[in-house]
Amino acid sequence: MTDVPTVPAAARRDLAEESGRPAAAETTSLRAVVAVDLDERLCRRIEELEPRIDLIRDHSLYRPMRGPADWSGDPEHVRSPEERSAYEEMIDSAEALFGLPDVDPSQLARTVAANPRLRWVHATAAGGGAQVKAADLPREALASIAFTSSAGVHGDTLAEFALFGVLAGAKDLPRLQAQQREHRWTQRWEMRQIDEMTVLVVGLGGIGSSVAEKLDALGATVVGTSRSGRPVDGVDRIVDVADLPSAAAEADAVVVTLPGTAATEGLVGRDVLDAIKPGATVVNVGRGTVIDEDALVAALDDGRVGFAALDVFAVEPLPEDSPLWDHPHVLVSPHTAALNRAEEERIAKMFAENARRLLDGEPMRSRVDTMEFY
């Protein structure tokens, strides 16, 4: 551990006036505890970016990562009773947490009950709202603690998978693979071109905006849904979610980027898939619950959907008896499209920026709505 310098209040006021942002009212430091296995280099990076953070960590107490961004760590790793006690004592001393303890909602509930000083929790998952919901916290805790997620840090990586899925559908990847397996050389056929396609992006948040940008760069006509209705770069037309069926009828491909909430469950259902343009491609990089999988299988079977590239599923791991596994027009990705070594650094930087915002009294990024847990 290194000593963390504290910026005197007068100096902070001067700096704030120079930068044009308000100074923090009284708080000169923030005791933040790292609850998951974050590399020491990135811990030091957080301290460099926001020196008012008193960043507490003990790498001997974490479940070690098995690969990049494996925040929950090795499930085979078991703490001794002494280590468990030390870990919980460290967690329960926090004003802020980097990550849910062991990425376990029940452990979040335990520390919230044990620690009245806790004022901010940052979830390392983009879908951190679902983790907070699963903790079943009392309403007073949801009102007094700020919860943020890592939404936005995966935008470009997921957008690349979405683009890959749209391209795979346009170029008949299943047919190419089947003919290669069979060593069968057929007559040539015409493949679709992205710049001749209309793509419906369901959800224009951080991921959807990145998807739209990449598709627009390739010349696609992009239609998108947005709760705010605000213009988004690269999107030719924004439609209301209530108009999804009519929008789907125009689309050569549909890309789903929405989170899993009560409002989005089954949103892309039979009405949308019945209306979809014959042979269209469906890509999901949001949450599996947004698509009605039974309706999707039916649409794949009768050809209304020509190809589906799915990184997420309603139940994960995907059950062995799911018809999606063996469907000839489905590409199954085991929720791995977002995984990238740079994710850890992006989240560390996001945490430091949100700490600055908290200390300076500014709105925090990716704040979880604790009514919809989005």
TrEMBL record:
<dbReference type="Pfam" id="PF02826">
    <property type="entry name" value="2-Hacid_dh_C"/>
</dbReference>
<dbReference type="InterPro" id="IPR006140">
    <property type="entry name" value="D-isomer_DH_NAD-bd"/>
</dbReference>
<feature type="compositionally biased region" description="Basic and acidic residues">
    <location>
        <begin position="11"/>
        <end position="20"/>
    </location>
</feature>
<protein>
    <submittedName>
        <fullName>D-2-hydroxyacid dehydrogenase</fullName>
    </submittedName>
</protein>
<dbReference type="InterPro" id="IPR036291">
    <property type="entry name" value="NAD(P)-bd_dom_sf"/>
</dbReference>
<keyword id="KW-0560">Oxidoreductase</keyword>
<feature type="domain" description="D-isomer specific 2-hydroxyacid dehydrogenase NAD-binding">
    <location>
        <begin position="166"/>
        <end position="337"/>
    </location>
</feature>
<feature type="region of interest" description="Disordered">
    <location>
        <begin position="1"/>
        <end position="24"/>
    </location>
</feature>
<keyword id="KW-0520">NAD</keyword>
